[in-house]
Amino acid sequence: MGERMNATTLKAQALPALLAGTNRQPINFAIGLAELERGDTTTGTLNALSLTAQALRFERPLPPANFNTEPSIHDERNILPNRMRRTLIRILKEKKTSDDLELALAWAFGRLKVRPHPFDLPRIDGFVRAYAEQLGLTAQHWAAQQNDSTAAQQNYFFADALDETNWSQAPLAQRARFIMDRRKEDAAAARTLVEANWAQENADARVRVLTALETGLNSGDQTFLEGLAKDRAPRVRSLAQRFLARITGRDADHPALKACMERMHRSTSGLLKKRATLTLELPATVKEHEARLWIRNAFSEVSCSELALALDMNEAAMIDAAEKDEKLMLALALMATQDRRLDLLEQIVSSRLKDAWEQMSLCGVQDLGLMPTDERLRWAEILVRPYAGKPPASYAAWSWLHRSLEAPVPEALMETVLRSSRWLANLLDEKKAGPEWMELLAAVCPSPLRDRLRNQFASLDAPLTLTALSLLDILDSLEKVGHHE
Amino acid sequence: MALSLENVEALAPDQPSLDAARKLLKAGSWPALASNDAGLIWGECQGSGSTPYRVVVSEIDAGYKCTCPSRKFPCKHSLALMWLRADGKLSFGVAAVPVWVNDWLSRRRGPTVATPSEGGSKASIEAAGSGDPEAKTDPKAEARAAVARERNRQEREDAILAGFDDLDLWISDQVDRGLAGFAAHSAQACKLIAQRLVDAKSSGLAARLESLPSRLFSLPEAVRPTATIQELGQIRLLSAAYRRQSEDAEALPAGLKADVRQAIGWSISREALLADLNALRVQATWHVVATLSEVQPDRLRRLETWLWRETEQDAPRFAVLIDFVPVATGAASSGYSVGDRVEAELVFYPSAIPMRAQIARSLSGAVASDDGLEIPEQSLSDAYRSYEQAMQLLPWIDVFPLCIRGARVRRHGTQLFVCDSTETAEPLALPLSPAQFSLATPLLSLDTLDAIGLWNGYSLTLSWAQTELGRWVSA
User: Fold this and answer.
1) For a disulfide at A106, which of A131, A243, A434, B274, Cβ 3.0-4.6 Å?
2) Span A100-123, pLDDT tens digits
3) Is the full-model pTM beyond 0.90?
4) How far apart are CA A29 and CA A10, in angstroms?
5) What is the Cα–Cα distance from B290 to B273, expressed in whole angstroms?
6) Are residues A50 and B233, on separate chains, in Cβ contact within 8 Å?
């Protein structure tokens, strides 16, 4: 009875009654709370409420029994400079920015081995999730955490420089590139690495890694490729079959080639000198606007050499024979790109399919796979050369070239645009080009020409060029802090 | 304040306003652009009509005015003018301040270094007592008005006290039913009693009760019953304290009495505060460390700007400027950005823990600064102790700023905590506001950081952190 009122008494006597309701469980003021009930019980209850509230407020929050162990991420990339952070966030948060702007940024981050500031990742979450592979280990960890709560268990110790011990933990693109490089040095050793890890790969990864085995394909790969005949993924089975056909020289097992051959017609023409002529007949169900897509799908699994072999002629003769059929030329251009046969592509584009750039752009984005940067540039130069001083004013064509290259366009092309006083003006007059065009030009502009592009932008209205100029600033800034290979 | 694109972004009510402003960045849209080289810029923007809109912006505090009929504040013309200034691509000729700009300056309430009303005919508080014959009023009318004011005041006091009888009854009913399940029916219950308290002219307490359900639902379900006890207990404490100060003027210390009256709904106007010679005034360089924006149930947006005093002196280290703007205007920022530094004299509202203030005099415009803060050498436990001390002085204190040296962010499941980075005798871990989970996650990788946060008794809202990777801010 004589017990002094304190926080413990309040929590022991008043708190349960307040929670349960004093109708059901009245507060027992006799035990340590007599001071509160000076007037009536109602006032005593309200006083008990106030004091219990204060007692609870003075309780310190209890720490949890344990904390999660956070993975230690050794991201050695340089961080985007502070002065560019807000600009990056601003342009990525703008609703109307083009995809090319995001792609240019992501590829620049990847190519120059720079990463966004870790504190900015939540603010540019969509961008980070979409392009995590290009943005470094911290960004990959962030994206994995957002997509999957178990991602924290992954290993983030791997470095950008891969070797036999850590290659399998790297992002897919880096893995495929590593295998391709390794194939050049020691094809058998690279295959052994792939075989050892094959069971853990998903279908996408299996296709990408298997594509990398095309480099240095030899008879030693036959056993491994034969084992893939029962792979769960049809794409893997089909690719393995193609490689096998190439090794063994048998074309009977190449359904895609057979399908193509069924659509090809061979004839002869000429009065004095008989020349072979090839034409492509599309199925009757394929409408005109679907033709390019059909061509791309039909010829995507066939190589130039396989087709030439099946036609019993060499590749140069095959191109000569197809010169009258624009659709077949387009198919050959796509195949030459896929086979990385730039000599054939040059032959196709230089005299026969001069608008190959625009034609190919209508077939969808060209995946140049593991083609090295310098080879990609050469590929682009071949495509743009026929346009000489007058590049097309088609947004789709420029965007396609950018996406295919995953880098700025060849300097010569941009030089043409910058040298012409009318090209940009015509674009604005005729096409009523908006900010997205300026962003695309900024995205594809090679670094030595950015200042000249800025000068051209200076004469345009600010609303058109504001984001494009910001993009140029960020790309310049990335170049300054990045590692050049 | 040198206007920056970040300021413009922060001030914009929404993205479409920025998009619309962007279209006005052409020189052709602005027949006139000028500045007085002392923080004022103005221009005329050609709209769809024949008469251009007149736009003026004060760079010192990002104040603005436009003659267009837009209901968005700032409108696209004001935003465009700020944008043009921040961008620096178009030149602003130096010119004499036109009459329409002076007119706006004389009418505006906000702080400015310019004193356009000097020499003008506008009445001022000082002039009221200066013996100026024009300022004199009829003594009888003044006496009648004073009597009327006193009668109104007394009527309000009576109404408030009568309202508290209803409040006590309502709280008793809730306690009788049990507070464990109060949160489930709190929306309806609180709305009813809040309306009664509005009728009883106790608007402060009414607002507190009206926002109680949303506060409870922002907490984890497990803590809602005890949080209900804390919240209702504080409300009951406030009403009891109010009764005491009305029965006996000396019952409470002056600061606490002022707190009680403000919490109940007796507001102090800015003019009255500035005229109060006894009010605490502190002249210093202040850093903006947090900006908060919250929509209240009464459709007013509450904008808080938290300031941190740079120099060590015997005065409040923190101050908070609070503005209320109608939600319909779209304004979502006070014009200050985290990181701004401003030299000003602040006048504090009377309180046991002076924190809320008004700018009495701006000595410089706000300038964006990358400088770090000299956060005092105190651990999380020390900082929390200062909160406990504040609670002893002001039991219903709501948000309290904490300065922590050597803190660390850690994770338990999906909840982040701020802890001391080293082992301490009294291990303490304050839960971070769930709304900050994503933004604060990058801090998990850091071993130590110095931080400033706002503790509301349930969770900490981290507003500023100095780390090896640079400054982290929540806004």
Assistant:
1) A131
2) 999 999 999 999 999 999 999 999
3) no
4) 10
5) 24
6) yes
